[in-house]
Amino acid sequence: MREGFGKAMAELGQNIPEVVALTADLGESTRLSNFNKNFPERFFEVGVAEQNLIGIATGLALEGFIPFATSYATFLPGRCLDQIRISVCYNKANVKLVGSHGGLTTGPDGATHQMLEDIAIMRSLPNMAVVVPADEKQAYEATLALAHRKGPAYLRLSRERVKSIKRNSNFEFGKIEIITGGDDVAIFCCGTMVGEALTASNYLRREGINCAVINVHTIKPLDVEGVVRTARYVRGVVTAEDGQYRGGLGGAIAETLARYHPVPIRYIGMDDKFGESGQPQELMKKYKMTYLDIMHTALNVFRRTND
C-alpha cells in the first residue's frame, strides 16, 4: 500500500503544483523519497514533532495548498489528536493525513506501534473522512481521489505486503465495493482483511455457502444505502478489520444496520486488547483474525439463521 501511495504522490506532484508533502522523520518509510527528489521545494521534513507537523500542514492548507502529512499511525493520529481535532477538523482544513503501519500486521514492532484504535478515533471526529484501501492499486487510486476532494481526510496504510485484489471497478470515494456477490452471508471488510475475506469466501462456496465480500474502503462517510441494500439480501453479516472493531468498521456497520435493517452480526477484529510483538500471521492467528476465523464466523452466522 505504501508503494501505491508513493507512486500517486509522485504523479500528483507532477500534475498539481498545490500538492505538498510533509513527514515527521519518516519520509523514506512512507515512500515520499521520489516526491522529495523531484519536488524538494514542496517537501517538508519537520523532524520528530508530530504536533508541529499538523500545525504546519494546516497553515499550508489555509493558504491554498493541498498538504499530505505522513507518519506512522501510532503517531498520527496517536500523538496529535488535539491538533487534528482543532486545527484540521474544526477549521475544515484541506489536510490529508496519512497513517502508515496501521493495525496488528505491523507485527514485530509490538503493541506500542500496532495502532488499532485509529479508525475509531478518526471516524468520531467531525468533518473527517476515513479511507482504508485494500491493496497497492487502491492506495494509489485513493490518494489521487483525496487530492481532488476538499476537506480533512485520513488515509490508513498497512506495513505488510498484501496480495492484489481482483476488482471490476476503480476506487469511488464514499461507495462500497462488492467484490463477490452472495445471498447467504455478507462479509464487510477493509484493508488487509479484504484478502482474508476473499479466501474465506472461496472455501465457503465449496461448501455451498455463498458469501458476498464487500470492500468498505471508505468507512466515513459510510455508504449507508449500499450497506443496507446488501444486508437485505443475506441472512447475516460479518465484519472484518485489522484493528479494534468497537468504534471501527464493525461499529460503523452495526450502527447503520441497527437503525435501518437489523440482522444477525458478528465481528472479526481486535476485541478490546493490545497486541504484542510477533510475526503478522502469528499474531493474526492468535487474535483470531485469519481467513479461517472469518470462515468459521460466517458459517456460525449462516447456521444460526438457517435453523
What does this 3D model show about the protein?
The chain is an alpha/beta fold and 307 residues long. The chain folds into two domains: 2-156, Thiamin diphosphate (ThDP)-binding fold, Pyr/PP domains (Rossmann fold); 177-306, Rossmann fold, CATH 3.40.50.920. Helix content is 38%, strand content 19%. The protein has helices spanning 2-15, 33-38, 50-62, 81-90, 118-123, 136-147, 193-206, 224-231, 249-260, 280-286, 291-306, and strands spanning 19-23, 43-45, 66-72, 96-100, 129-131, 153-156, 177-180, 185-189, 211-215, 218-220, 236-244, 265-270. The strands form two sheets. A seven-stranded mixed sheet has the order 2-1-3-4-6-5-10, sandwiched between helices. Strand 8 (185-189), helix 7 and strand 9 form a beta-alpha-beta unit. Helix 3 runs parallel beside helix 4 (81-90), helix 7 packs across helix 11 (291-306) and helix 8 crosses helix 9 (249-260).
